Amino acid sequence: MAFLTGQKIKGKVVLITGAARGIGAGLAKRLAADGAKVALVGLEPGEQKKVAERIGPAARSWEADVTSWEQLERATAGIVEHFGGIDIVVANAGIASTGFVRSVDPAAFEKVIEVDLLGVWRTFRVAMPHVIERGGYLLAISSLAAIAHAPGMANYAAAKAGVEAFCNSLRAEVAHLGVRVGVAHPTWIRTDLVDSADAHPVFGKLRTGMPGLIGKTYPLDVALGCIETGIRRRARTIHAPRWVGGLKLIRTFLPPMIELGSRTRVPAADRAALEDIAARGARESSITGHGGRAANQS
């Protein structure tokens, strides 16, 4: 039987991918504190196990690469055996790379799309029979980057925009089954992914130099509060903070505005990127964050 919108999540089983750090780990702690049983799924077993141990008996960790059908199926079977089913899935696993299309490491570029887009599809597909059985909720973590497409982020923006489109189609497909589908759009949140990108000698300056709210970085709790509330409501869209949703109203005008703002900044960054690649190599220059390194080694 489907649980009602706004109902407490006590006793619900929540599968969260990418739960070793950042939004995934923080969300697991919050939901468990409200009585949920949380299954942590990801590629950093050591860190993820620490998160589960800090939470206590309500949490358990499974190692799995979201781009692997076999590993996801094995983890999902283990979750169902241990907890008895799955009510909610949060497809949070995501990585980023840095680089312009003409010079970025190709493998690092494609890995972002594999994890951030195909990883969502595979996670949902494997867990969906169990979520349908309980009339549950599927939530994918997209990004502000799905709405505002900045230079140096072509793969990330494409993957996150794809996640939004995927969820919009899926929502209509499973509504009659009592399953709701949501997509979250957090802006720049203080996580390992954002911190490591900001530390990049070339692209950190591009990112932090974005004007106004688009360039502002928010504390992790801002995203966690918005997403937790959205899960309780089984929301179709979650914006963290709320102003991100307002950008959708002017989405048509954002690409030319971003292009105009980039004219004075990209040429120098393009030259600096080539110099960084010559000094460190394309792969080292492209990979960011602990999650990105783990995904590119898998």
SSE pattern, N- to C-terminal: EHEHEHEHEHEHHHHEHHHHH
Total DSSP helices: 14
The total count of strands amounts to 7
The CATH superfamily is known as: NAD(P)-binding Rossmann-like Domain
Shape type: globular
Uncertain segments are: 1-6
Just name the CATH architecture.
Answer: 3-Layer(aba) Sandwich
- Global mean pLDDT: 93
Radius of gyration: 19 Å
Query: Could you say what the CATH topology is called?
Result: Rossmann fold
Residue fraction in strands: 5-15%
Structural class: alpha/beta
Strand arrangement in the largest pleated sheet = 3-2-1-4-5-6-7
Structure description:
The model is unreliable at 1-6 (pLDDT under 50). The chain has helices at 22-33, 45-55, 69-83, 106-133, 154-174, 192-198, 203-208, 212-215, 220-233, 243-247, 254-262, 266-280, 282-286, 289-297, and strands at 13-17, 37-42, 59-63, 88-91, 137-141, 180-186, 237-240. A 7-stranded parallel β-sheet has the order 3-2-1-4-5-6-7, sandwiched between helices. The N and C termini lie far apart (38 Å). Helix content is 54%, strand content 12%. With 298 residues, it is α/β, with parallel strands linked by helices. The protein is built from 14 helices and 7 strands. The protein has a single domain, classed as NAD(P)-binding Rossmann-like Domain (Rossmann fold).
